[in-house]
Specification:
It contains six helices and eleven strands. It has about 240 residues and is an alpha/beta fold.
Length: about 240
């Protein structure tokens, strides 16, 4: 079984065969999971913002979501996301498969009652499959390396914040860093593929509007989902 977790890219797309809605009770809370098949492969899909779109980024229960993946036997998980681009030289829309991340603000962990340290990071095996598949399938430019900067949300970033973090990262989002950390704690191989749907606040003078972000993310979702459909077969 392969796990898939996404947000705006998944909310409006019914791409599973034999879809079955279920809820798993975990030590960290309840996780909403859709079970089914994708390209002949058994998959478990979690919409990180909830089926009712009522879970903002700072309220996503990452430990419950990834504990549910582990309980179902998903050893590899693909994340999908929409990010703001921090690089003026990048022509958007584009795809990025980050190789590292910065996350100073999240406290997501499964280790609340024990002193355990892990070395965080995205999984190179899953990353490699996503890169190879994206280069074969996508008509959008594919950026193979980059640093993902996670902010807390739910608000977007100020111009001053973006002016600072653009010196250290290539894209900005609100969830993938936490997901990567919790996945590593649970021994799950995780990497994320993101659509760069907009420039971050102030990059190229752009002013960011959330409704515009959602609209662009939906427009680019088809390409991303086709990559995932093929990637699960390889994984």
């Amino acid at each position: 079984m392969i796990g898939i977790i996404g947000g705006t890219l998944l909310l409006e797309n019914d791409f599973l065969e034999d879809r079955e809605e279920t809820e798993l009770r975990t030590p960290f809370g309840v996780a909403e999971v859709d079970l089914g098949h994708l390209n002949g492969v058994e998959v478990a899909v979690i919409q990180r913002h909830g089926r009712r779109k009522n879970r903002p980024p700072h309220m996503v229960n990452h430990p419950a979501n990834f504990y549910a993946f582990k309980a179902l036997g998903a050893e590899k998980v693909i994340g999908l996301g929409s990010v703001g681009c921090l690089r003026e030289e990048v022509e958007i829309p584009a795809l990025i498969i980050p190789h590292d991340y910065i996350d100073f603000f999240s406290s997501a962990t499964v280790f609340n009652d024990s002193l355990v340290y892990i070395t965080p990071g995205f999984d190179e095996t899953v990353r490699k499959v996503l890169i190879e598949t994206a280069k074969e399938v996508s008509s959008l430019p594919v950026i193979e390396r980059g640093v993902y900067f996670q902010t807390r949300g739910p608000r977007l970033e100020t111009r001053a914040e973006i002016a600072m973090i653009k010196n250290f990262a290539d894209c900005v989002g609100m969830t993938a860093g936490s997901e990567a950390t919790v996945a590593k704690e649970l021994g799950i191989r995780y990497a994320v593929i993101c659509t760069m749907d907009n420039y971050a606040h102030g990059i190229k003078g752009e002013t960011v509007d959330y409704e515009v972000i959602i609209k662009r993310a939906k427009e680019n979702a088809k390409s991303c989902l086709e990559i995932v459909r093929r990637a699960v077969k390889r994984l």
